[in-house]
Amino acid sequence: MQYQAKKKFGQNFLKDKIYVQKIVQSIPNIHKNEKIVEIGVGLGDLSDELLKLYPIKAYEIDSDLCSLLEKKYSDVLESGRFELINQDVLTLERENGWLHNQDYILVSNLPYYVATHIILGVLKDPLCKGFVVMTQKEVAHKFCAKDGDCDFCALSVLTQTLGDARILFDVPANAFEPMPKVTSSVFMVCKNNKTLQLGFEDMLKTAFCSPRKKLFKNLATRYNKDFVKKIFERLKLQENIRAHELSSPIYHQIFEEIKKER
Questions:
Q1: Superfamily of chain region 7-191
Q2: Pairing label, strands 163-171, 184-191
Q3: Residues 94-125 pLDDT 10s
Q4: Is 29 among the annotated ligand-binding positions?
């Protein structure tokens, strides 16, 4: 299917079948009650392979592209094996499940410009049980970074809190049409059943607000300096430590100390 990619939607169509197959093969075991959801169908290269194995629910923001996809997938749309929704997922209500009203797994080549927002959305959605997604390489490494890594950030802590993440493989620019200017990476998150405590994400944003500065100074921009000093003393933390040098469990301990003083 021929189609002129639109820059405003960040369209880069994955055409290399080797990488499409690798994505499909990376999908974790699907339980009977779990749905496969795809965001950004594109020309349908990934959808074609997914439909050989699973019924899927797919979102596509481009209405012109949806018209072509409706013709291409007329049979599976009629049978109900394929559900195609022409909508920007970021405009969807997030009550009672964001992308689906039952348990689901997200499998997508995400548009670079909205990837972080979408991943944060599915991380926080209790009905999403996991995902295999492709993003810009540096974004993938932020979500999958371990404490001590230079990429370790608030996104890393959030991901470790809500699941287990790992980088699967890189995808070169020449695997796409048109070619992006960056390398992509596919990564997977298998979620646990935990939820974020109210205020924890805001505390993390403060902790990592200036990554090159010391954690103590970052926290002191939001909380009383003497209060932060007491927390560091209780947890035996050095005042010169930087945000990426702490582990996720320590951030939860810091948050528990903050909650005590509320």
A1: Vaccinia Virus protein VP39 (3.40.50.150)
A2: antiparallel
A3: 877 899 999 999 999 999 999 999 999 999 99
A4: no
